[in-house]
Amino acid sequence: MMHEEEAIIQVKHLVKKYGAFTAVKGIDFNVHKGEVFGVLGPNGAGKTTTLEMLVGLRKPDEGTGIIGGFDISRDIKKVKEVIGVQLQSTTLFELLTVEEILQLYGSFYRKQVDILTLIDDMILSDKRKSRIKSLSGGQKQRLAIALALIHDPLIIFLDEPTTGLDPQARRTLWDIILKLKESGKTIVLTTHYMDEAHVLCDRIAIMDQGNLIALDTPSQLVKSLQSDSAVEFRFQHESDEMDMTKVEGVKQVGREKDAYVLYTDDLQATLTSLIGEASEKQLKLTDLKTRTATLEDVFIHMTGRSLREE
Ligand code: ATP
């Protein structure tokens, strides 16, 4: 980084083992005050475990975490005063109304925000008197975030906040998260959607198999590919006759099942060369697509696998 930003979270060498299996293998990162920090990775990468250690739900086997100046191993009570947490499996009291559960949670804290304003901010005003069990998935998720905000925390942890939501509900939640950032909160969220990470996050840590394999801004991560375009295609009849690294302009070659992905910063040269070579070998290309390189490609490039696979 060019200049020192204020680190509101400092993580050093965090390790978590489940028996003989190490789910988080010694990761380090800082989160800056006021940023949206994304932890991106496929299922099982260790994202939830990392979050759970930071919020005091699991004890790290090694390493330290300092949040808002407090040590997660020694001062978790203090940590809990400055953080708000929404986990994947928040269970809500289904028979209470939206307003009632917020009042209940608020009563647990010394400091609390104005409940009606909070309900309004989470776009739940017309559900204020509705029972929780009657809410949609998106509304329940927004309520879970409201509960995380009741004591006006500085830092908010959101574990896969939009998983399972329809596109419109996802977008509503994105708006809410960006507004929270505008209001000065620091947000740490996990996701396995790269579009979400790209839209929301100032910086992204990419995790894979318990390791942190990259950390940067979304645009720097994509830039690190050194290719701005991806060309995807298959052969009508599977063939490995062509050496893709010989295609003009190709920087990297990825495979996704029987499809090829060529990364290039000279799209025109690559397409011309690809089509020329294929014709020469009498290979027929199908499903040919070109697109701008994305975070998904960064992941494929680093691991040889797709984020979408298990
Ligand atoms: P997801 O997107 O599915 O939540 P994740 O990146 O959050 O994935 P974790 O939930 O942190 O991943 O899990 C990391 C690894 O640790 C996985 O292989 C998981 O099976 C394993 N794991 C998680 N919790 C436990 C547990 N309580 N006991 C044993 N293994 C566990």
UniProtKB/TrEMBL annotation:
GO terms for cellular component: plasma membrane. Pfam families: ABC_tran (PF00005). It is found in: Cell membrane. Its main location: membrane. This is ATP-binding cassette domain-containing protein. Keywords: ATP-binding, Cell membrane, Membrane, Nucleotide-binding, Translocase, Transport. Coiled coil: none annotated. InterPro entries: AAA+_ATPase (IPR003593), ABC_transporter-like_ATP-bd (IPR003439), ABC_transporter-like_CS (IPR017871), ABC_transporter_ATP-binding (IPR050763), P-loop_NTPase (IPR027417). The keyword Cell membrane applies. Belongs to the ABC transporter superfamily. Residues 9-234 form the ABC transporter domain. One of its GO terms (molecular function) is ATP hydrolysis activity. It comes from the Bacteria. It comes from Falsibacillus albus. The keyword Transferase does not apply.
